[in-house]
Amino acid sequence: MYRVALEVCIDTPDGIAAAMGADRIELCSSLALGGLTPGVGLVASAIAQGAEVHAMVRPRAGDFVFSTADIDACLADIAFLRTAGVKGIVIGAANEDGTINETAIAEMVAEAGNLDVTLHRVVDISPDPVACVEVAKRNKIKRILTSGGTSSVREGLPIIKQMITASEGVEIMAGGGLTIADIEPLIDAGIHAIHSSCGTDIAAKGAVSRIGINATQRMTDAGKVAALKAAIHQKVTA
């Protein structure tokens, strides 16, 4: 049977339990900033709960044009994550023209050893997301997360289809502005995996806005995880 995996990105200890209905989790800190490398405690909690953990490796917010110090921090994080027991890592680095920084990527892949490697949505700032499939092949990267070079998978579906066509040996995972309505056309296109935060905004506890902290926070919603999983199952078994 054609199988489409569901990956949920989370950044809180409580989110781990809420996401356990997914096939795997992308573990981050600070999803509001696009996702940064998770801390030691969050990694330990996810592994202790039995999740299949694929950890983000991104040392700072902002762009993906990394300095030598940034890359050194990425390599140190990968070394830690490899020994911590994660299943995979999620990486990306760009040149100033938006193309993939293959030198940095190759260093990270080498440091990852036998971990699964996902190339994240840095491909969506590339002038040619389809060409990033060949970058992944050259660097023995297992999968690519993409919205097809746009802000949402719906808008980017034509490019995602081209990436799937070119993807022999590389999994294409769709994520970015994804809704349940996108599941059917993505599966019809031959997508390998679906990626979502499955988040719900809730009011933060306490008067944190008084000290300049955002008064809402986004929490993983187990109901949304279950609904996405069910929609995928319904489509692939139809």
Automatic annotation (TrEMBL):
The lineage of its organism: Bacteria, Pseudomonadati, Pseudomonadota, Alphaproteobacteria, Rhodobacterales. This is PF03932 family protein CutC. Belongs to the CutC family. Its main location: cytoplasm. The keyword Cytoplasm applies. Keywords: Cytoplasm. It is found in: Cytoplasm. HAMAP family: CutC (MF_00795). It comes from the Bacteria. Pfam families: CutC.
